[in-house]
Design brief:
alpha/beta, Aspartate Aminotransferase, domain 1, Aspartate Aminotransferase, domain 2, 2 domains, seven-stranded mixed sheet
């Protein structure tokens, strides 16, 4: 048996998703003529209480477009030191937007208004102008840790008081909502921009949507074109996103349950030094010996995983991981 726990990006479209893609009505989206893309953008905007949306090839692009929209060269943004926008987007903050980054050390990637406030620069020519705060929900490097709306509210209030924009990298936002029980529609009152990824836990093959005001999305569409992200008959991909929103959100509870089972099994193994708290579909754990050695042993049993540090491994559950696979992995954890 082969079990791929490297990422929730490895999923294949389900038969129902493929049928939706096959039957999609398409047009040239750069000309604004793809009705399926428009339907996806409108659906997600309404779901999160935002005015408009922009369909892009990836979450990295939606995040980078948002940063470009909400900053000017010589500005500075504030984010956690583990954040995806800082660690895994190729230095795009500096390259695309000519913006510097103020890094905070949050609790498993979760930062607070109290942490942010003293890092906002005063109006002094010696300092870059602080203009943006970026949160991530769930936090990848935090092991799928989640912000609740109660935690987000004071950050949003601080940003409003200080004239800062607030962007959410919501790569796994539906996993967070499933865990916290918060409503998506309530997010729109707190964020200037939200990036929603469709190709992770929701199982679509491609795509993320940037949500913001109509004015911001109008400019974002221009930035997307400059970044090379304008797509033509993209409705085939958008149809997969619509199907995922309609059919794959509720089932995220299954992925979370599978992750909890794996975490519990790992806690009893002599070669495991520590297992981070599991809230969603990510399981991060530390090993006594180098992670690469453990990964080789797992691969020998048909289990694929990734390391996120010299002694840290990540398991990710998703819609292509079934109960029998979870049982197999648990049986295989004895070396």
């Amino acid at each position: 048996m082969t079990v791929d726990l490297r990422s929730d990006t490895v999923t294949k479209p389900t038969p129902g998703m493929l049928e939706a893609m096959w039957s999609a009505k398409v047009g040239d989206d750069v000309f604004g003529e793809d009705e399926t893309v428009s339907a996806l953008e409108e659906k997600l905007a309404a779901l999160f209480g935002m005015e408009a949306g922009l369909f892009c090839p990836s979450g990295t692009m939606t995040n980078q477009i948002a940063i470009k929209c909400f900053t000017q060269p010589l500005d500075e943004l504030i984010t956690d030191q583990t954040s995806h926008v800082y660690r895994y987007e190729g230095g795009g903050i500096a390259f695309n937007s000519a913006v510097s980054t103020r890094l905070l050390n949050g609790n498993r990637g979760i930062i607070t208004a109290e942490m942010i406030a003293p890092e906002i620069n005063s109006n002094d020519v010696h300092y870059p102008h602080t203009s943006l705060v970026v949160l991530e929900n769930t936090v990848n490097k935090g092991g799928g840790s989640c912000y609740t709306l109660d935690q987000i509210k004071p950050i949003a209030e601080l940003c409003q008081q200080k004239g800062l924009k607030l962007h959410l990298d919501g790569a796994r936002i539906f996993n967070a909502l499933t865990h916290t029980g918060d409503r998506a529609v309530d997010y729109g009152q707190y964020f200037d921009g939200i990036s929603v990824c469709l190709s992770k836990g929701l199982g679509a093959p491609v795509g993320s949507v940037l949500l913001a005001s109509k004015e911001t999305i109008k400019y974002a569409r221009r930035v997307r074109k400059v970044f090379g992200g304008g797509m033509r008959q993209a409705g085939f991909l958008a149809a997969a996103g619509i199907y995922a929103l309609d059919h794959h959100v509720e089932r995220l509870k299954i992925d979370h349950a599978h992750a909890a089972l794996l975490a519990e099994a790992l806690k009893g193994k002599s070669w495991v030094a520590n297992v981070l708290p599991v809230e969603t579909n990510l399981v991060l754990f530390d090993t006594f010996e180098p992670a690469k050695n453990i990964l080789e042993k797992l691969l020998g049993k048909g289990i694929k995983a990734n390391s996120t540090g010299p002694n840290r491994i990540r398991f990710v559950t998703h819609l292509d991981v079934h109960p029998d696979m979870v049982e197999y992995v648990i049986r295989s954890l004895t070396f």
